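Troubleshooting entry. The earlier prediction with nicotinamide-adenine-dinucleotide gave an output that would not parse, so I re-checked the input for stray whitespace and re-submitted. Clean input:
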Amino acid sequence: MDFYRDRTVLVTGGLGFIGSNLSIELVRCGARVRIVDPLLPELGGNLFNIEPVQDQVQLLRGDLRDPDAAARAVEGADVIFNLAGQISHIDSMTDPYQDLEINCRSHLTLLEACRRHNRRARVVYSSSRQLYGRPRYLPVDEMHPVDPVDVNGCHELAAEQYHFVYRKAYGVPVVSLRLTNTYGPRQLLRHSRQGFLGWFVRQALDGAEISVYGDGRQLRDPAFVDDVVEALLLAGSKPEADGEIFNLGGPAALSLQEIADTLLRIAGRGTLRLAPFPPEKQAIDIGSYYACWAKIHDRLGWRPKVGLEEGFRRTLDFYGPIFSHYV
Ligand SMILES: NC(=O)c1ccc[n+]([C@@H]2O[C@H](COP(=O)([O-])OP(=O)(O)OC[C@H]3O[C@@H](n4cnc5c(N)ncnc54)[C@H](O)[C@@H]3O)[C@@H](O)[C@H]2O)c1
């Protein structure tokens, strides 16, 4: 995308799964990429994620909760992709204060830095389908009520609202993308607490057993990370995106059992079993979800292109030779 050539672009959480894929694509587009990420333990940050562009990005190992680090990060940026976060729903229930710190304080401090030092950079915030809670209808569009079922969803909602408050009060340009379950290269595989897709991939690579909770018929619409990166790039470059909230989704809604079966078939190993929900996961389960992404299609021309089979093939090919960097 030519828009980014010679622009200074900040990616917060740029050592993580989505942030690193975005940073690599931004370098390819000719942007001057700056990453801020303290590599917080147990999250998806990994220095190896930016290995292909390590000499072409500026890496600030700072924490956005530190106002000085946030000020250095936003200085001179034309676009800010705000992807820093803690995405584990279950961890947000066992340690709600840590989730508050990361998913609220980080964003508030970043926005304060924008207010003080850089009000012209467009901020693209990566929000989540988790805001909607248990869907009241499907597919879920942006008019669906927000009603989170866990602490993580509450904090993501608060953080999204902070962004729009700073837009209204101080004129900081803001757009929010509400992501669905995303998968692909550079996703954390070390533990199961960051969502089921990365963990399914890990089990398939290990030739192990995938546990699908419940009856396996819950629907999801996995999005391949390259499609998500394309949506982020459009949101950061198109003037008509300013002030908007857009849902992202995958190309198809499939049951968890179909998703696992597809992965195991492509991997050629591993097994699947249906297992009862652990009570702590049952308490925050949202049932079936898939997004209506018609709004971003109509306004910005985005649609998810990579089907599940192709996406899983590319994911497994990526991890094959470099698995040791992710376990
Ligand atoms: N992965 C998904 O399926 C998914 C779904 C919905 C929404 N999202 C959103 O996308 C964002 C990125 O997700 P991901 O999967 O790449 O997560 P990730 O865990 O792979 O990466 C998050 C990165 O943010 C960094 N970070 C955390 N706190 C920070 C701080 N205070 N200052 C600077 N960096 C900090 C971490 O060190 C980590 O490298 C999340 O914040 C989440 O809101 C992701």
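This one parsed fine. Residues 12-13, 15-19, 36-40, 43-45, 63-65, 83-85, 87, 102, 106, 126, 128, 156, 179, 181-182, 188, 195 surround nicotinamide-adenine-dinucleotide (CB under 6 Å).
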